[in-house]
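Researcher: I'm comparing several assemblies side by side, and this is the next one on my list. It has 388 residues spread over two chains. Same procedure as the others: predict the full complex and return the structure.
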Amino acid sequence: MIDSTLPCCAIKSTVLDGPDYKRCTEGLATSLEANTPFLFSYDLRIDGDEEYVEPYCRVWLEDAGKIRSYFVDEQPDLARTHAPQLFRMLAHYDLREICADRLRQINPRARGETYHVCLSAHGVILTAEHIHTVAADCGKSAAFAAFMPTQLSNHAHLSGLAGLQQCATALLLAQYSVGSRDKYSAVRVQPS
Amino acid sequence: MTKPDYADYICPVQETGLLNFEQLDRCTADLASDPEAFAPFAISYDLHLYDGYVFAQPVSRLWQESEGVVHAFRTTERPDLFRHYAPQIFSFLEMEALRDAFWNALNTLLPRGSGELFHACICAHGVILIAEQARWVAMNHSVNPFVGFVPKGLSNHARVAHFAGLKACATALLRAQAIGHDTPLPQVRVEQSRSA
């Protein structure tokens, strides 16, 4: 039987403990609610030892039962509403550094693959721009990764894992189906 | 031979098809066309040169003159301004094809650049790349610390107007680096690029 679940290993990082990360995620919903953003993202391209920021800012929300991502340059109202968080996100060097290091670990042979760096109220999710292709070509564990804060109670930790799993699954389901390779339908977030 | 600090700087301007009038208007909506209007006149983000590569750093700035001083405001300093100009800034950040033109221009300017930082500034008249340490780059690399871009297809009259606007903005951007310098600032001359 084919396993249709992709793994997403969540590791703890002190980078998410500070006030900087909290400021980046102000206003994000903690669960999928209609018309309330639950993720902000930008893109990171990995090519060997080099990483390149691709500053395409997106806001992710549920709209009429579907998960949609909006480029903020095309949505002036979203851009203005969330501008402080989005600019902080783009300028958060420490966050970018841990994301790039992690991507080199999960996909050491990456040659120009683009990942979305997605900030949620529960932590950060890294997901391949082409999830199914990367899972097929580079291995299932190369498609997703996550970070959580270190300073969490047991209850908050479990709640955070569940929240990340909901966001990661939404990201997977939001991707356009690419036919026969489109064989994954869920993400399982696991602590490291 | 080292370029003397007091010589004029030349800003060679390339006409590029990677920037069209619609994009320029979209990215510069509500920006002042004259730096002396005491309103933001340019939006920028950073380009880092490292080992011959050029990396975009999405650290945005808004450039504005006030009380005779040109300021480069960061997000946290003027959140109100950044909220207002957010759509324009995001539009500029997303112009990936134009970034290729920046990389080509900077690789030509400083093929072995490493550690230099340039601001990619868009204003109502076009785009200017200016070294953050303009004098240092000019002195140590014997190059002009500017490159300009305007859309292709300008009429002669429009070209003259755009070049004059770019000159005013390039001069203002350079004046932002004047703090702490006793020597007079070099003049900026805007010229059609020979390689365009």
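Model: For your comparison table: The two ends of chain A are 26 Å apart (CA to CA).
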